[in-house]
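## Example record

The block below lists the input lines for one assembly entry, exactly as stored, with component labels intact.
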Amino acid sequence: MSQFDRHSGCPFHRRTDRSQTALPPADTPAPAHRERRRFLKGAGLTGLGLGLGGIGLSGTCPARAASGHGQDVTSAPQEQDAQLRYPFHGEHQQGVVTPRPATGMLVAFDVLARDRDDLERLLKILTERMAFLTQGGRIPERDPLFPPPDSGILGPVIAPDGLTMTLAVGASLFDKRYGLASARPQRLQRMEGFPNDALDAARCHGDLALQICANTLDTGYHALRDIIKNTPGLLMVRWKQEGTVPPLPPAPGEVDGSARNFLGFRDGSANPDGSDDVLMDELVWVGRDHDEPAWARGGSYLAARIIRNFVERWDRTPLHEQEMIFGRRKMSGAPLSDSTAEGREQDVPDYSRDPEGKITPLDAHIRLANPRTPATEKNRILRRPFNYSNGVEANGQLDMGLLFLCFQADLEAGFITVQRRLDGEPLEEYIKPVGGGYFFVLPGARDDNDFLGSGLLAASA
Amino acid sequence: MKTTRQWIATGAFALLPLAPLTALITAPAAQAAVAPEALVGPVADYKLYVLDNLEQLVSHTRDFTAAVQAGDVEKAQALYAPTRVYYERIEPIAELFADLDASIDAREDDYEKGVEDPDFTGFHRLEYALFHDDSTEGMEKYAQGLMDDVNDLDSRVQGLTFPPETVVGGAAALMEEVAATKVSGEEDRYSRTDLWDFQGNVDGAREIFELFKPLAAQEDAGFVERVQDNFDDVEETLADYRLEADDPSAGFESYDRVSDADRRALTGPVTVLAEDLSTLRGLLGLN
Ligand code: HEM
Ligand SMILES: [Cu+2]
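Predicted structure tokens for the full assembly:
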């Protein structure tokens, strides 16, 4: 089972992701890409605007060099390059297996379109705006007697800034309004509350969800305001939650660590390797073998949860107990099952010699979430969360938590099964899910003549 | 039954889905400015509209405040919404006098101490007493204050020269009001008479639009048609909530009765109107 852990394989050389083949393939031999990454860091090259410069770096994998990073999906972000640009067109949408940048938000919308034609126009406008915003460029000018077409918060030229925009549809879009019911993805459903949830209706569900991630929140807000400005009468924001992850300065000679969440633990350590296409086709992307409508191939299920963390209480909890709750060491991120003193985050948890949970409690978060048995391999999910901080509660406690986002090819085998296993876990004393929803990430737009959702409309015509 | 209409997407790019990006990066198009003399007539007509509504506001406020003074809760409750309508119609002009606008129409959210704030006066202070407390106790001074303020407003507006850009911009300002506080039902949270105010704002915006429509049509006929259709749409949805179809003075159902689906149905055309009307000034070459 460990062969699929993100730190064990060579992620670069399995990659053939068509969405990122803008550059010629590099002919590097497989070994030691991690060494290479270290070398790059040591040479201080990773920050040098590889969005362009990467092309010249023969020897790195094309897909990664093209986008100027050498990171896994949940590695702490290092790349702050404003010219970092991810391809918009392709078989899959961006923002799923793309390394997570320092900021992200999820915005859920109600669709106001009156009929199918309106819905189609909405999808075309969204596609056109997303294509522009993620690639960047000069904003149009207009007679100053009119309101300007752009909010202007990024100035006259929009830098891509690592922006990815990912469009997903909710179950409610398949109600009777637009005649889509016959094409609904098999497992798309309205999120039901789990036992520990205290769902706030104002922060749940939606006809559409737009995930917007970028190096800076301003880039994300700019994109959101552009979308709102360009879709009057078609969309209404239902809720939004933004979050961040702490970037790490490049550390020469060190392996990338996962960013920490607001409970102080590294989050993402055992994520499946997002650059492993074979694995992603199995776990994340809907494909031929997934018993879904044909139009849905290339898409993915998104489970979103707004999970409040009771941080004051957590900070009053003994370290030992915190580590038992998660099953990992707080500082290093090493699994408890690794008894060596200098355990590393990358080490793969091993419960085979600990059937009674004497070392890693049976109800530890990571052990419940992934028992690492052959039978539970198919329940693995790709997590891509952000930390949020919203202000202060009436009781004076901080309203902080995790914008939990995860992707999977099968919502039931993925998030729902994993969450059911986690129900009742000791961590629940410190967390409270308050919102979120289930969505289906549409397959990518192939080129300039295609638009997101074209397959869905054609399939339900 | 609703006819299918185009009330959609008039944002800068929205009419050009999938257009090559370079096509959007165009030089600013100079707008053929409307001759300033052409604006004189519509502006004068608008002033008459405002003065008419002020006259109504004064007389209705007299009845409303008299009912409060007399301690007639039921009558005062009944007169609350029909009186406010005249204020809501002319808000773009009324708002030019910020002091009066605050004392006449501020909501408790505008004050740190909320309802208890000594500066909280006017319609919404009385609304709170009438619909939350079901009482007029201690309201005499607020009733008198409201009457004085409305009279003051009336006399100030008589002598006012109406700036054309304020008048034309008023249409958009009214739709912004609707989008910000009417759809959400924040305006009249105790009386739940939001739909009256909603209609008042829409009436006021439509009046401005109608007055300048011939000029706007010379610049952009499609714009005029779209705005007209969207106004019709909003009014049709509002009409579903009239207590009596043929008698506008009978008013509206409580805002509590407005379904989520209808709130969304209203948000669509209201947002498009706000977006479209935000370009009316530019269309007429006004600063
Ligand atoms: C506020 C809520 C949560 C916090 C603070 C949290 C934190 C963590 C941490 C610190 C780890 C260990 C490092 C790692 O492998 O990433 C982890 C692992 C994991 N978590 Fe969570 N988590 C939360 C909610 C969830 C939820 C809702 C799910 C899914 C239903 C989930 C699924 C997983 C999975 C699958 C793993 C990896 C286990 C493994 O493969 O060993 N987590 N989480
Ligand atoms: Cu490699």
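The radius of gyration of chain A is 22 Å. Residues 1-70 of chain A have pLDDT under 50 and may be disordered.
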